[in-house]
Amino acid sequence: MRVVPCFIAMMVSLFSSALLAETATEIVRKSDLQMRGDSSYTEATMKIIRPTWTRTMSMKTWSKGMDLSLVLVTAPAKDKGSASLKRHREMWNWIPSIERVVKIAPSMLSQSWMGSDFTNDDLINQSSIVVDYRHQMVGKEVFDGDQTWVIDAIAKPNAPVVWNKVRLWISQSTYLQRKVEFFDEFDELVNTMKTYDVKMLGGRQLASRMEMLPADKPGNKTQIITHQAQFNFVVKDSFFSLSQMKALRD
Q1: Does position 8 have pLDDT exceeding 70, yes or no?
Q2: In the list 33, 51, 97, 118, which could disulfide-bond 219, CB 3.0-4.6 Å?
Q3: Amino acid 250: pLDDT
Q4: Closest Cα to residue 123, out of 153, 165, 164, 93?
Q5: 74-117 pLDDT, tens digit each
């Protein structure tokens, strides 16, 4: 007589877990869409902060869907025109000082983008968190006064990703990612991203200040301050091309 209740309890548990997994995945998908829209354009300042020096860059970013993105550096003069392009699973960097296009191999995704604490993967492969990971609900916490869902994203087998696990704190009111922790294959914390100053930009709420902090380098961090944003405009796929990446100017 005990077998049936135990079986029912097991099935309820499995069904509940499936619902939680589906819910977590949907939250992550909505979060990605909230931050990028069907298409997006942003103007931002990146500040690389070190214990003895600070470096500032201006940048513009375009994206379309989950497969197309382009980042252009507009200042300072020595970096102006440098660009990064993603088309589906392929990524490239354009270095105007030597007039060379460098294809970003999977092994290069973990490398620093322009000397910052953000990786190539962080800046130009952001939607990977939706398609290359399994998602599971961990709990709920408050971050910066914002009630959030805490969700673990675990890399799928053989996925071409940098991080083995990503823990996300996603706002229950705006679906913005308020905090993100990045873990390596040994489940050790490598970087932590935090977002602040949520405001209306381009007709939607965005966290206008983002900070990336490496776990093993106290005093180091990189900030991205977003000044302007537009969403859901018409842009052709052909805009996201190698020729366009090399031709873009401020």
Answers
A1: no
A2: 51
A3: 67
A4: 93
A5: 999 999 999 999 998 899 999 999 999 999 988 888 899 999 99
149 φ, ψ (degrees, to nearest 5): -85, 140
Q: Which amino acid is at 195?
A: T
Q: What tens digit of pLDDT does each residue of 50-65 get? A: 999 999 999 999 999 8
SS (H, E, C) 128-177: HHHHCEEEEEEEEEEECCEEEEEEEEEECCCCCCCCCEEEEEEECCCCCE
What pLDDT, on a 0 to 100 scale, did the predictor assign at position 108?
Answer: 87
